[in-house]
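User: Please run a holo structure prediction.
Assistant: Happy to. Please share the sequence and the ligand.
User: Here you go; the ligand is alpha-L-arabinofuranose.
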Amino acid sequence: MPFVIRPAGIQSTMTKQLSILLLVCAVASVGAANPTLTIEAGNPVANVSPMLYGLMTEEINHSYDGGLYAELVRNRAFLDNPNSPVHWSVVPGKGSAATMALDPTQPLNDALPVSLRVEVSKASKRHPAGIANDGYWGIPVQPAAHYRASFYAKAAPGFSGSVIVSIQSNDGGTVYAKGKVAGLTPDWKQYEVTLETGKVKPTAQARYVLTLDRPGTVWFDLVSLFPPTWGDQPNGFRPDLLQMLVDLKPQFLRFPGGNYVEGDTIPTRFDWKKTIGPISQRPGHRCPWGYRSTDGMGLLEFLRWCEDMGAEPVLAVYAGYSLGGQHVNPGSDLEPYVQDALDEIEYVTGDTNTTWGAQRAKDGHPQPFPLQYVEIGNEDEFDRSGSYDARFAQFFDAIKVKHPQLKCISTVGTEQPESKRVHSRQPDVLDEHYYRPAHDFLNDSAHFDNYDRKGPEIFVGEWAAYDTSFPPWNGRSAKEPPTANMTAALGDATWMTAMERNSDVVKMQCYAPLLVNVSPGARQWRPNLIGYDALRCYGSPSYYAIKMFSRNVGDEILKASLDDATLHCSVTKDSRSGAILIKLVNPQPAPQPLQLDIQGVSGLKPTGTATTLAAAPDATNSIDNPTNVVPVTAEVSGVKPVFDYTLPANSITVLQLNVQ
Ligand code: AHR
């Protein structure tokens, strides 16, 4: 008997197209020749890794500055360009005049060694003059919102006026929020003021303006503006983006890279000790993706981010190799870097009696963070010197002496030539990276089936499918979409079934890159998972595929066989609820009737649910059309141990069936 499907109303955004597809499924007749998925429900073959679904992150595509890290002022410490205060402009008005210049003779401190000198030669209360910042592709204005504005300033002797701070339209015609600071002195001091918007229409066509109401000379540094943040935390995160990440229920966060941990050069590596403490003490550094990072997103912020998501850190430590080809010789040269990694681990996990645990407490987080995995470097197969084996060994030995419980991840996996891998030690985990055309993932879905069950554990620390009509890497071109389409999502979902089926060996996996600012010139890579501009955000079809999988994990892998190589599946069970979770991918352009034969159960409840993501191969989401492709959850009835189900064309489905 064909099943009957009824929308359960869980997703209000169900598209007409999908309704039609589901209807087609509902009436499809199922013949004996249909492929069969046989599930041995009474026979779990292994446990699903509880850490299987996680996230990977680094500063790329303006993931933090201009992304998750909510700071709105760009070039807040005037260090982005040594020759010019980029992203700042002079705001003269009618009847006023001002100039601005970088001033290394008036540094705020050693970490922030340049300030901005603003000389106002003509100004009054009615005609103020000063400077404006254009933000990260605009300053987002939200209605009824509080903005925390702060800056360091000092004035030349004799100045007794005020600094007016405001969020204004780009032409200055509309002031969305305004505040005032008075009492500047000839010494550096931090000033803070709260700005509040009223009933305004959201826009990012705005700038942040600081003006003087009379002539004078004022130096500014660390000019900062934060909108409402996640949990109202100072120096915090953009709530809409963090919510999208929380919704993925990640079990871990791999950070800070990726290439970002390595840097192009040794001095531009992620030097974690320079990323903690007050932001006024963080010099920032050039990231390997062509721009400067403020390091406002420092080690403690990464850890807080994990905490906010209920995820565990997977900490990547700098291991003596940088992307430009520099490496540190193993032995005494490498010792300081090994010590840095040990200190970093202590900062994350040490109690407050330890040096770095005490520092963490001083920085505002007395409670240690959980940590099981430490990754030694990133993609060290690129190190042509062949030093990785010995560098890995030196880190591994030092970490194991102090923290025998920690698992050390080698960055060279079995997808790399044997000669590049670590041999002198047995890494606990191998990190493998797969960026492939979608059809490669479809063709290689048995990839992990024959991995040695005895280990080492596998961490697929970066993976993503791409549609070959939009090859990867060339993200600088504005013509190419920053996120991928349904073709890629079908490949991604297939790859996830492969990893989940083998999650006794594949212990963790995460898509990369995670975040992309889609504004012109902001990105360096494609495809990415989540896109945003100053005001809005959206998930790619792959985002929704991952969400469907990561929210329906189960804890036991069931033996399942599918007698049709064009379909892909993974079947798990939630032993607490008894639910059987069946993930199916039909990448074909036609609906596919399927017989499900669920063995080893006394009975199944007659209704279950189906969550389906189905769309034309080139269908996608974008900043202007964010929910074109979204999953739909519907009730499935007529469920019994042997029943028929038709997968829509180009679809990813999660069936949840309940044992009676
Ligand atoms: O995800 C983008 C980059 O791809 C990562 O930084 C690097 O590890 C890989 O080559």
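Confidence is low (pLDDT under 50) at residues 1-32.
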